Amino acid sequence: DTEVTQTPKHLVMGMTNKKSLKCEQHMGHRAMYWYKQKAKKPPELMFVYSYEKLSINESVPSRFSPECPNSSLLNLHLHALQPEDSALYLCASSHPTRPSTQYFGPGTRLLVL
Amino acid sequence: GENVEQHPSTLSVQEGDSAVIKCTYSDSASNYFPWYKQELGKGPQLIIDIRSNVGEKKDQRIAVTLNKTAKHFSLHITETQPEDSAVYFCAVITQGGSEKLVFGKGTKLTVNP
Fold it and tell me: How far is A72 from chain B (nearest CA, A)?
């Protein structure tokens, strides 16, 4: 089983809203990732959690706040977003013995109005 | 940092033909080279990967070749089918302790029936 699940599938929010994206995997993976993907572009890394600790933050604005409450869950809290933040947000995970091999979820399509 | 070039950006083939997508990278220390397939509205799916100690890897109709001296690797799809139509991304793992994927810009493959 190489399934990463993400909820919601679609999200529309205003610039003053607070919302959260959720990601879950039950493969025993200990690294989890958030990526942002704009249309017709490759995924761009935002954050990496390794063993529930934030190990990489790619200089992402503070209106994006990640959280890893346990080894299976990864959240991305959104607040005061801008229209240019509209994108597909992808979660991925990888196993400790093969950290290079990342498995992606289906993504959350976010529209900021 | 690592730079990955991917060509072509679009590729159209007839069903049954072969398709080849090429990527070059800049960091000679890179040692892991995955290929992802992304269908419309879905997250990237890992389809094949290769490590630097191997020159070629095959899985049914898809194969990847790696030339470390020239710093390029290629995806080969034989006997293409309409369901192969998707965007394909090559990627490289950067070195230095962080498992950060650097993606090419993608190739949109269209297989015409």
Answer: 19
| Maximum distance among all Cα pairs of chain B, rounded to whole angstroms | 45
Bridge partner residues of B4 (DSSP): B25
- The position carrying tokens 């962080």 is B98
Cβ of A43 within 8 Å of Cβ of B106? The answer is no
Terminal CA-CA length for chain A: 37
Backbone phi, psi, residue B82, to 5°? -55, -35
Q: Residue-wise pLDDT tens for chain A (113 aa)? A: 569 999 999 999 998 899 999 999 999 899 999 999 999 999 999 999 999 999 888 889 999 999 999 999 999 999 999 999 999 999 999 987 777 889 999 999 999 99
* Structure-derived torsion over alpha carbons of residues B60, B40, A89, A18, reported in degrees to the nearest 10: -150
CB-nearest to B89 from A42, A55, A106 is A42
Q: For the residues of B50-100, what is the DSSP string, one character each?
A: EETT-SEEEETTEEEEEETTTTEEEEEE-S--GGG-EEEEEEEEPSSS---
CB count within 10 Å of CB A54 equals 12
